[in-house]
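User:
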Amino acid sequence: MLDGTELQELRTALRDVAAERMAQDSGHDLAHLDRVWSNAQRLARSEGEVDLKILLGAAYLHDLVNLPKNAPNRSKASTLAAAAAAPVLRELGFDNHQVAATQHAIAAHSFSAGLAPKSKEARILRDADRLDALGMIGIARTFAVSGALGTPLYDPQDPFATSRDLDDGAFALDHWPEKLFRLPEDMLTQTGKAIAKERVANMRRYAAVLASELGIVLPDSWS
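Assistant: Predicted structure:
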């Protein structure tokens, strides 16, 4: 088990690798990695014995291969990141078990990969990463990705999809009810579930203010 100083030194080394090798965008940058690590530490405190070395490695390398949201092979990003992480981890002193455990956490964190997290560290990382898609930072990231992809923020004719099907490929705001509002149900830790519910509630309050600014009533399904 690493002490506090060793953990901080490892974090610095991992962060330096990510800064050099990760393709960054406004939703997946060093600040995102820092937030995921902060979330992960918070969740780990309520999950009993956790290998923080594995969790730290996974937190800072989980987006080492970062593909655009609209890339045809986007679902493979986490497994590609896990493969790319192995030599980095070995260079930083991870043994074979730690490398494999960290790779599993990285591969299983992705929503699109569809892999079940089998370890405590993997479950924590998945929750920590998903928490960063919610709340105020989640709102900012949604619209940042929308801007990068050239997607409209909302449908001007029907912003809250009261008479059409949701389509988050066409409108950024649709991504909230289509995916993000459902995340609390899928959290794997009790602390993660509680935080996710709080952050979704904040997003719903934002939606209510947005509706009032647009001069319409927020549908019950959003509130």
